[in-house]
Amino acid sequence: MILTGSEILKNIENKKIIIDPFDVSQLNPNSYNFTLSSKLLVYDNHVLDVKQNNPFREIVIPQEGLILSPGVVYLASTKETIGSDFFVPIIRGRSSIGRLGLFVNITADLIDLGSVNRITLQLSAVQPVTVYPGLQIGQVTFWQVMGEISERYSGRYKSEESPSPSKMYQDFE
Description:
6-stranded antiparallel beta sheet
């Protein structure tokens, strides 16, 4: 069951949902608009290997914006720290962003219980598009779980404060 905006607000107030910083003007009928941080990661190699720690570089999005190019994987993060030990967050791009041909998290939209961090976003542009730090780029919804919560996320991406590259190569070590 998805939480309404008023339920999201109630659970932020009772600290069962974390959104920090929180701005009530970004609250929607059943979601919250999250914003883009100023840091991006871009892989150095065109061909990526799941068994390797792929090299990357950091780019800072200037206030005047940065043009994202097609064919490049951009790893960004939310400006907000988001998560919950009680509800499952699911992230999506805003429809206005999608209408500009910018995909936000084509995959990996499910955030595990107990994962509370700045969420890494995968950005992919269909055609060149300019983005800005602080842009309301996506939405997070919160879903009620059924059954006993016996464990919470404790994986390799826990508590991150900036965009994070894939660590899948660790599965092969």
